[in-house]
Amino acid sequence: MRQPWRVAIVGGGITGLAAAVRLADRAPAGTEVTVYEQSGVLGGKLRTGELAGGPVEFGAESFLMRDPAGGESAVVTLARRLGLAGDIVHPSVGQAALAVDGELRPVPGGTLVGVPGDLAKAAAVAEPAADADRDAGRPLLAPGADVSVGALVRARFGDAVVDRLVDPMLGGVYAGRADDLSLATTMPALARAARVEHTLLGAVRAAQAAAPRAPGEPVFGTLAGGLSRLVEAAATAGGATIRRTAAVRELTPTATGWRLTVGPTRDPERVDADAVLLAVPARPAARLLAGLDGPAGLGAGVAATVGALDYASVALVTLALPRPELPALSGFLVPATEGLLIKASTFFTTKWGHLARPDGLALVRASVGRYGEEASLQVTDDDLVEAVHRELSKVLGTPLPAPVASHVQRWGGALPQYTPGHLDRVAAVRAALRGAHPTLALAGAGYDGVGIPVCVRSGETAAEEIITALGGSA
Predict the structure, then answer these.
(1) What distances in angstroms separate CA 221 from CA 14, 63, 365, 372, one per listed residue?
(2) Number of other residues whose CB lies within 10 A of the CB of residue 339
(3) Residue 293: pLDDT above 70?
(4) Nearest-angstrom CA–CA distance, 416 and 208
């Protein structure tokens, strides 16, 4: 293999930037890394903006501090590598609520993404089905099996627990429905426990025990000054050449690696690379994979599998409200059964103490859009702002003051909808690529799950695979 290596990263979100940092740290000296970002902005769904003179997140708001095994999450480790660990801050208010039956009720304690580990606590919001969670003398899931979250929880705890607890929790994260989403992908710890435990209650408690958290230890964190600081620091530390507004339209294997076709159709640029890391959503990745050669039409097969993943679109509506009467909550979630447009709301300046303003101005953000209900987003920004303001007032039971400023951030095709069997399909695609094209790797939320830590770890893992395929680390 020629030296220095040339590695192309397609996608300038946090996944691709984390991969670039890992290559800078582990690849041989002189490795040339180029990041191609179709838009003019790095960071993907991490985007810090400004509203009414203060910082606010227009995309992802926070990250998990711990990984599923209880260790430091990948994003915390990355922040430490980038010199940002000292700037991690935590929520000052952690209690959230559920909007049910026209009122706000605290989210019950002891749940795992809404699935109860304490049925008595859950009953305050949703009465579990009586005696449905019986021990049948075998594990809930067979080895390697996967089901939808809703199917498992409905059978064991009843419809109310799914509709009032689990569905709004998953809706807040994925904008999807519990009856459609894969258990193994969205709740891997619970899926592992369900392959051993005979009851769902036992599986939830086993999953919680497998990743214990010390009392008072923060679950979530963010960066003072905004998450775009993580993006900027990663772009600098990676040392890659950054190509903004550079769409990669074709990917072709060559005798020595890869050829990328970059830029407009009328004036294309051809770029050669020894390895390629695709850190883009499933559909653009599928378009690039479709042209691969290989046995039995490898390109068409992997492209069809990757491209089948569907996405939900959402809009984040942020209001700057002068001295509103807000409860002492971090925010609330809304079950779809409540019939509201908003599915979640965050009281930014209450939840995050470092954002509190001396002038009493409050920043409140609402998330709009559920999978399959994209028509609800097909209105003007002004109409969304008006609807969110009206529904927030209704849920809070008091008229909110008129906003002095507002912002609507639309994320089209933002959140992957992982149906049962997703992880097996991704594993099969990666195995096929590894066998035919080991210097091509896939990374990102479309394959490994949502959340900043998952995306960071996905990019780092793909970078390690490329290093191995090219001949080893420094």
Answers:
(1) 16, 5, 18, 31
(2) 7
(3) no
(4) 25
